[in-house]
Amino acid sequence: xxxxxxxxxxxxxxxxxxxxxxxxxxxxxxxxxxxxxxxxxxxxxxxxxxxxxxxxxxxxxxxxxxxxxxxxxxxxxxxxxxxxxxxxxxxxxxxxxxxxxxxxxxxxxxxxxxxxxxxxxxxxxxxxxxxxx
Length: 133
Prior knowledge:
Layout: H1 2-22, H2 25-31, E1 62-63, E2 66-67, E3 72-73, E4 83-84, E5 89-101, E6 104-114, E7 120-121, E8 128-131
Antiparallel strand pairs: 1-2, 3-5, 4-5, 5-6, 6-7, 6-8
């Protein structure tokens, strides 16, 4: 009789172990059992919107006494038709602007010039972006 109880206990234990082994990993985690399953899970969740500035919705701000989203000149602009060989333009001048970029406040520093027809343009690679903290 004792031998048959041992056999029943062994068969029951094997049945329990085999049923745990075929359970999904989430059920095994709930039971605190790991049967050679990697339990480290890393998940990143992000939300994309059509507007890269959605967190701030283009709020205007004043920084250091200057309004955002407007170009401000550093010095007085003069139109005396002086050629600037570095930027291939006339009467070049430096400007800056406070604005938003990728949800952060930034300052753009750039140079603007005039072409031979008097049209203002920003030379290629003249803009520098500085993050404001």
